[in-house]
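USER:
Make up one protein:

ASSISTANT:
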Amino acid sequence: MAGADPASKPTGLGAWMVLTIILPGMFMNVFDFFAVNVATPLLHRDLGSGPAALELIVGGYGLTFSLGLITGGRLGDRYGRRRVFFGGMLLFALASAAAGAAPTSDSLVAARLLQGAAASIMVPQVLSIIRVSFSARERRVALALYGMTIALGQVSGQALGGIIMSANVLGLGWRPIFL
């Protein structure tokens, strides 16, 4: 159709498949941010985490996440959004494993700081990939799914996080929320 607005052309199946890959990364970020809030009593009991350590375990993630967002976005611009997204996701998974295996409050704080930094590398790529992968018309749907993913992560972080800890999966207490 000559003269048609390219923004109105349908997006290919590949873009929707990419969305199904990047949205779980966004979900993990939000879930992890909220799930740790319900774990604080167990962290106090199991690791002897005092108020200062608990603040760093909960808030340190948000701190390194927010401090690294601009740098994370620039890394995606410079080295490629998908490459940086998967690098951030790998670093996030490793930091999550370190958090789940943390033997002390100090090591959990360090893992949470690293998780936040990894999320700051991963998360900016999600919106960038959506922006460049979808036509203007279909981008609205992709952004709605993005918003739903964030909302689902917030709610399930607290609800599912509590259920996971109550179930005491394999006797691991709070650790499965990170694993």
